[in-house]
Amino acid sequence: MKRYGLFINGEWTHALQGEFYEVTNPATGEIVGVCADGDEGDVERAVSAAHQAFPVWANRTARERADILRRSYELIVSHKDELGEIMTLEQGKPLAEAYAEVQYAADFVEWSGEEAKRIYGETIPASSPDKRIWVHKQPVGVAAAITPWNFPASMITRKIAPALAAGCPVIIKPAEQTPLTACRLVELFQEAGVPKGVINLITSTRAPSVGSAMLADERVRKIGFTGSTEVGKILMKQAADTMKKVSLELGGHAPFIVFADAELDRAADEVIASKFRNAGQTCVCANRIYVEESIGNAFAERLAQRAKKLKMGNGLEKDVSIGPLIDGNAADKVEGQVKDAINKGAEVIAGGHRHTKVGKNPGEKAHFFEPTVLLQVTDEMEIMQEETFGPVAPIQFFNSEEEVVKKANNNRYGLAAYFYTQDLARAIRVAEGLEFGIVGVNDGAPSTAQAPFGGFKESGLGREGGKYGVEEFLETKYISVNIK
């Protein structure tokens, strides 16, 4: 069991108050680590270190920054098994998913490092022969990253790798439930040669006060956050006081549309992969399954058969597909949505039950929910209006393209959407008509390090990934030179 302090100015140190907190395995309730519990004073220390490191890091050449990120990538990949096991212990996801996430996290580091060498300016034709117009890109300054528990590695690297590539020092505040992955990643970045003060880590159970301290400090010029829309709105309001740049990746309620001409087996496999990955605890997972009525029952049967075959248990055990929900509150929410749907007429055709003990797990504190498929779902049910963040697939039938696109868009969220069809013309129409930042056409897993990730409407602002993610950490400076 590892014990970590805070990482500030290149050193591991105690929190000012000297406090620690325990990290538990959500599958067993067992303590798997201990982390320092930082507060506002620790944020001030971290911001000061990052602010002091900013000019030094920004003045490093693009190649120097890229080389450090390349070494970081190689270290993360070489420690994939170790990082994956840490992640499963503190977050619960199956090991295979954890290993895949580590690679995904490393991909952001690799891609961002390569983009560091491609931050270009411009020369614009002037209106006078005596003038020259240059456009210069430079790093915005100290950046803060507040990350969630559902993807403890990739949500960190998706934020800090482009920041480092652009020349910005960072302060990381990981979710209190999953700090151990963050701590080990920071150790690897340090080993790769990141200078002191360029990466700082504050672990804490005091998320509101720590976040507010970051936002109140005018030396922090950029905030990146992944989490709920409600918290995102609070952070955006606080950021306005010092006019910080913000990137917010917030809630989602993804529709998955299956048209009658789709390959049903392939579509069913993709729904399973999208909906039940990480026990449904992903912001882009399928939340509303819309199936054309003529194939509705046939598709529902395929989905239910597949859901029943998924093995639930401790993510460290062999062949487990569904790990625990992160805590009791998460399980309560899923259970509440299922009960609400049943009370309003939904039919359970797979799963439907909550468990506290599964397989060899000894802990009563563990919270599992069976992979569940619901039929006869209506718009009045809570599960069709709010993000579930659990392993429940509600199915609703539709009769026309126009109807289903309207239903898919009739929601405050606009992060990801998916649909299956073999009709090219329909594919173009529907892809353009869906009001979402990410659209998967016959693709249930479109996320990749080089593409822009982000949403419309109340699903957030800004984009992460590829060159788009690096641009979020740059300021555009217009320089006009009179040469007369």
Automatic annotation (TrEMBL):
It comes from the Bacteria. One of its GO terms (biological process) is gamma-aminobutyric acid catabolic process. One of its GO terms (molecular function) is succinate-semialdehyde dehydrogenase (NAD+) activity. InterPro entries: Ald_DH/histidinol_DH (IPR016161), Ald_DH_C (IPR016163), Ald_DH_CS_CYS (IPR016160), Ald_DH_N (IPR016162), Aldehyde_DH_dom (IPR015590), Aldehyde_DH_Superfamily (IPR050740), Succ_semiAld_DH (IPR010102). Keywords: Oxidoreductase. Belongs to the aldehyde dehydrogenase family. This is Succinate semialdehyde dehydrogenase. It comes from Marininema mesophilum. The lineage of its organism: Bacteria, Bacillati, Bacillota, Bacilli, Bacillales.
